[in-house]
Amino acid sequence: DLKINTMEYVHILEEVLFPWMDEKFGLDNVVLIQDSAPCHGSKTTQTLLARKVPNFVKAQNWPSNNPDLNLLDYFLWASFKIGVDQLKASIIKNSKKIPASDVVAAARRFRARIEAVIEAKGGIE
Q: Gene3D superfamilies, from UniProt (predicted)?
């Protein structure tokens, strides 16, 4: 849900993406496709891309909101979700293995930790 404006996006393109793409592949060897985010379709962005990236697909030539044509949508986010689901299951499984006595012992040490933070005026020594 991150939203960036045109100027921020252009800055990212010029300072991060273009140098990286040029070093790794050469700008002539890259096809750059964007979705319909407002900062992607702005005149400033479109003009910059037309000038810097020869194989740039203009916003009006690409279907908006089409997950079938977006690698992030049809592959990457699903792959991340699988990984996150597996990680969540592993955390739940392993948290059930923590002995109750360890939790009780940690809770008993909590007051001393708080007192140390108060004594150090916010820092732990």
A: Ribonuclease H-like superfamily/Ribonuclease H
Structure tokens at 125: 């020594």
Contacts of 108 (CB under 8 A, 6+ apart): none
> Averaged over 44-70, what is the pLDDT?
83
Beta bridge partner(s), residue 55: 31
Residue 69 has pLDDT above 90, yes or no: no
Is residue 59 within 8 A of residue 34, CB to CB? The reply is yes
Q: Within 13 A of 124's CA, how many CA atoms are on the CB side? A: 4
Q: What whole-number distance in Å separates Cα of residue 71 and Cα of residue 84?
A: 18
Residue type, 123: G
Alpha-carbon distances of 54 from 9, 51, 74, 108, 118, rounded to whole Å: 19, 7, 26, 65, 61
- Please report, for the chain, the start and end positions of each structural domain, with discontinuous segments joined by +: 6-63, 69-119
Is 100 a residue whose pLDDT tops 60?
A: yes
- Over residues 73-86, mean pLDDT: 85
